[in-house]
Amino acid sequence: MSFAYSTTRLLHDEHEAALVLLERTASALRRQDADDAAIVSAARHLAHALRGEITEHFTFEEQFVFPRLIERGCGDIVELLDEEHQTLNEAFAEILDLIAPLEAALTADLDVTRFRRLFGVVDTGLRGHIEKEELGLLRMIEEFFDRDLDAEAASRHGD
Ligand SMILES: [Fe+2]
Ligand SMILES: [Fe+2]
What we know:
Elements: H1 6-30, H2 36-71, H3 75-103, H4 112-144, H5 147-156
The chain binds fe (ii) ion (FE2) (2 copies).
């Protein structure tokens, strides 16, 4: 897929990176020989991304993309995507609570059964959200943004 605007390309690249992260975590959980250390390492990596780049991605969409599209008449779809952010943030908070003691080095143990269950919720929810945005949000940006708006939004990326 080729995009005219930087905003669309930035979001698309971040979606791809998030899918790689989900796949890496899923594959650590799937491996027959996976020991706890491999899963713990995947959990730490996931937590780092959820708190960092994925939260930044959500914030960028909420602050610089969604409002512009609502102004241009795309409120229904954008509201749905925004609600999904809230639901996903709740799922992220739950899995981050589970991983936090590992990150703080308070324990080396992870409740793998619970991690597997919570990751299942995050994995399904985030994949579905990204799919909707790839099909809907990115097309709306390409249709309703203009050069100035794109330049303004892209310049705020990473703020
Ligand atoms: Fe989103
Ligand atoms: Fe997104």
